[in-house]
Structure prediction request, 529 residues.
Amino acid sequence: MARKPISMRKAREILRLKFELGLTHRQVGASLKMSHVSVGKYLERAQAAGLSWPLPADCDERRLEELLRGANPEERVGRKAPPDVREIHRELKRKGVTLRLLWEEYRRERPEGYGYTQFCEYYRRFRSGLEPTLRQEYKAGEKMMVDWAGDPLWITDPQTGEKRAVALFVAVLGASSYTFVQVFENRQTASWIEAHMQAWEFFDGVATLTVPDNEKTGVAHACRYEPQLTRVYEELAAHYGTVVLPARAYKPRDKAKVEGAVLHAQRHIMAALRNQTFLSLEQLRTAVRGALLALNLRPFQKLPGSRQELFEQVDRPALRELPAERFEPADWQKAKVNIDYHVQVDWHFYSVPHPLVHEQVEVRLSERMVEIFHRGRRVCAHPRSHRRGSASTDAAHRPKAHARHMAWTPGRLIGWAQNVVGPLCAAVVERLLADKPHPEQGYRSCLGIMRLGRSYAKERLEKACARALAADACSYRSVRSILETGLDRQPLEPASAERGVQEHTNLRGAAYYADAPCEEPNNQENDRA
Prediction:
């Protein structure tokens, strides 16, 4: 096993003790707690590299190490080709790729190359020199991090010159740092949902994980261990096949990539547009798209390529496909089923199955549909109506008795009476409907007369209706009483107006009342009253 090389601080000290103080190899080795043989080897390397004491001003520790290693005769004879650490860093972003796999591929190409331990050491040194925000390991297509930019952009009213603030949404893919930026009117739920959908459409795919901040529009209750998402945000994630994993509160490193992307958006987009005036949201969005294109094409400072190139190579092949249809946002409300098996939603009434009377239900209200859920199961759906005070009723939701009742109309009731019983029964039914302020108020009486036709012969019912018409007593009670007492079997007498007035001793004429004395009222009784 090869010995670990000494530090460059010790190497500098060897040169100082030897050339400045003139100590022997053994004295230098005793002073630095190392073998005099090793001291001699390093002095030989320094001599081969043309080094003495004092060292040149521009010779720092890294340069000194390069000179001493380059002057090592043993290393010059069998120098091994170092691995391409940048290519290693890029390949590790792919799913299933490990350092062991990359080392095996490296050794197949260079059998005389470094062993696994030194191979890993090369990559470790390279990774330690990257920015802290890049030290997290991101797999291809694994994470999309999203956030709102802290500072707003501005739109100027062309009429009044008044400025209003608009929000900047930023999304970034973890493996490639490929960035999406868009402007929205506000930070409300509708904008939050639309921003995610536009981001996935911009990336032409969906990442496995979506990492947001604890925005109230997406996270109903923030929790370190079990955050609770809003209902519409959960539906959005399920529709696109992603998992929402909110960052921990006050832990920006959980979404470090989007923190850096927001910083780049502020520097390369917002700052670049600071001196321009925008009169509409669409005009501002056009300018943002141009600046975003330049940002994604900008070369990396410490890595080869750009965000666009890395996205095409790494992230795009690993993203999941977009669903066939775009997500339709919806609001959720709670409601209680009324006694008439309807729920009120946005000042309109929608029916539900009648066994759910007095039950609590959840209503999903979208632009086109109203869906009603009971204990997590959808029980019905209606096209959304914006007619205030009206009702949307499904006949299948009514009880059987209500369905039979609603099947009758005034014309159908009159037709039944005419065809099944006779014209006099039809006349009674027509009178019943006409006497009510609303025809439906007479439905029950008409249905009651229909039921009498089951217990009595149709001829008797027709005669009972004739007697009810003659007596001007067109009601269910009157017809039933005529049938129960058998009056329908008795001959129908002519009207009293046709018979005239019969004379008898109890009749008093007008003369009787004209000759009668008029009694004065008793004042005392009136006073007592």
